[in-house]
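Can you make up a protein sequence with its backbone structure tokens?

===
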Amino acid sequence: MDFWMIERKHLKVDLLEIFSALDNIQYKYDWIISNADIFYPQLENTPKEIKDRWNRSALLVSGQELTDRLSNDYIHFLTGGVLSAVPLGTKVEQVNKYVPHWEIENFDSPDYQFQTPLTQLEILCYDGYAWVIICESDFSEFVKEKLPLAQKPDDYYRSLQKQTAIE
């Protein structure tokens, strides 16, 4: 498993910019969204059905729905969230066989496992200040090529320490 981190302040349109850089990868999967701390930037304009649906502890959405909600500024990931890419057409019944749970203690370790056996890629909103892409090694070169600001966790933390020292 490979881990890539990118600071949110480097992204003009946050998660949508990651999707775009990765050739609109959101449309190639359905997404299990869990452990999400969601903010509704347009609280008054966000339809009640969307707020009710996105307030669940785990949610299965299409890439189209995810894009629409982000593009229309109906949702924004604040300090956390796990987006697990699963095959297109995955049924809720398949997801319900597993309890999506992200284990922070295994983050960036060889023991890290995706939330479900269906998961093929994960994108995490990490403490609100970074996005983390977790992928198999064969996808890593693509991430590195398409998101040049993405760094391995050790490099990312070193660069944060340098920034803090300068400030």
User: Anything to note?
Assistant: The chain has a mean pLDDT of 90. Strands lie at 2-7, 29-34, 38-39, 58-62, 76-77, 80-87, 121-126, 130-135. Residues 97 and 116 are 9 Å apart (CA to CA). Residues 2-166 form one domain.
